[in-house]
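stage 2 :: seqdesign
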């Protein structure tokens, strides 16, 4: 759907959802339920193709990998306004996610940089003080994408996945020298690689692996940045993990693509400690330390795409809020607890109680 937005550069249109026919999202009519409170327009081409998003706490900045506009969109997450777009010869939407970009995004705080996975096996580095492209790092064959990404602030290493290669692999990149220092190949992965996270308590990376030869239900790989190697694999059943978020109690929320449930794993043992059946078919997931909730972008939820909300303290489901087609990206502002979900052809939906 194509739509023109008024005031395209800076706008946050607060919509009253009751009875609205202009939005794919709605909420329960009961008190204190989550619902959409605003819609942020995105300038340029209609927002059709996008990928990972995040909120950086200290600056309250929301970043979105916007393939439709071949850039990373930057928003003020405190006022829900569009600020600018980082462009750097991104591939954009090629019609095939395996070759498109931008993809994963991560802030390297100690260098004031944003690192972004792109098509053609490229990682782009932007100086956030000037919003300028300062480096392009090649990880692979210059055809398939460099995808999802995480940062180890202790060892100053970025982990990025080339998920569409055969076999898929992950690269460790030194943020000081901007050079690839290790390539970790997943010969047993049969459906690519997904989201990595770094755990500051264990000093390990964890990465979603949707499927392996020995674990058809998927697994979570454990990577030690100090030895620059894979040191473990936690198999799961009926999951096909995509998104991954580190929550309290050294637990990981697995955004299972499987239509049965999302799962919570103990990062230390690999044990599944909770299964939440009320929401499933997930892609990106997010933990918000502000309200201590998990948020699930469940684009393939059996009853339709939703924003799933889970209490991370008790691992219990709270609510599902309908979103829209392919709404697979989510992030939250821990200062005001507002949640951001890109909505195809519309803009950025902002959700709150």
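stage 2 :: out
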């Amino acid at each position: 759907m194509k739509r023109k937005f008024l005031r395209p550069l800076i706008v946050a249109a607060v919509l009253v959802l009751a009875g609205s026919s202009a939005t794919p999202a709605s909420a329960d009519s009961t008190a204190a339920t989550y619902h959409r409170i605003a819609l942020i327009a995105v300038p340029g081409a209609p927002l059709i193709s996008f990928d990972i998003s995040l909120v950086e706490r200290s600056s309250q900045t929301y970043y979105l990998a916007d393939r439709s506009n071949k850039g990373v969109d930057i928003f003020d997450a405190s006022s829900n306004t569009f600020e600018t777009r980082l462009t750097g010869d991104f591939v954009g939407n090629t019609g095939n996610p395996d070759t498109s970009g931008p993809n994963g995004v991560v802030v390297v705080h100690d260098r004031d940089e944003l690192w972004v996975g792109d098509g053609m096996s490229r990682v782009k580095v932007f100086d956030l003080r000037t919003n300028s492209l300062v480096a392009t790092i090649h990880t692979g064959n210059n055809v398939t994408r460099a995808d999802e990404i995480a940062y180890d602030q202790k060892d100053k290493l970025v982990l990025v996945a080339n998920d569409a290669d055969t076999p898929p692999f992950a690269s460790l990149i030194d943020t000081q020298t901007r050079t690839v220092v290790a390539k970790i190949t997943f010969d047993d992965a049969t459906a690519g690689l997904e989201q990595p996270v770094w755990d500051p308590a264990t000093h390990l990376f964890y990465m979603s692996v949707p499927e392996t030869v020995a674990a058809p239900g998927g697994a979570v790989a454990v990577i030690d940045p100090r030895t620059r190697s894979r040191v473990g694999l936690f198999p799961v059943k009926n999951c096909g993990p995509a998104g991954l978020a580190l929550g309290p109690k050294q637990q990981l929320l697995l955004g299972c693509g499987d239509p049965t449930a999302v799962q919570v794993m103990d990062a230390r043992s690999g044990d599944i400690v909770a299964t939440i059946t009320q929401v499933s078919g997930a892609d990106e997931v997010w933990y918000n330390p502000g309200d201590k909730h998990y948020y699930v972008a469940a684009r393939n939820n059996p009853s339709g795409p939703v924003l799933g909300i889970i209490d991370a303290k008790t691992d219990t489901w709270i609510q599902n809020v309908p979103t829209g087609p392919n709404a697979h990206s989510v992030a939250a502002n821990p200062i005001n607890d507002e949640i951001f979900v890109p909505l195809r052809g519309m803009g950025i939906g902002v959700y709150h109680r």
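stage 3 :: structure notes
- DSSP finds no helices and 29 strands in the chain.
- The chain has one domain: 12-352.
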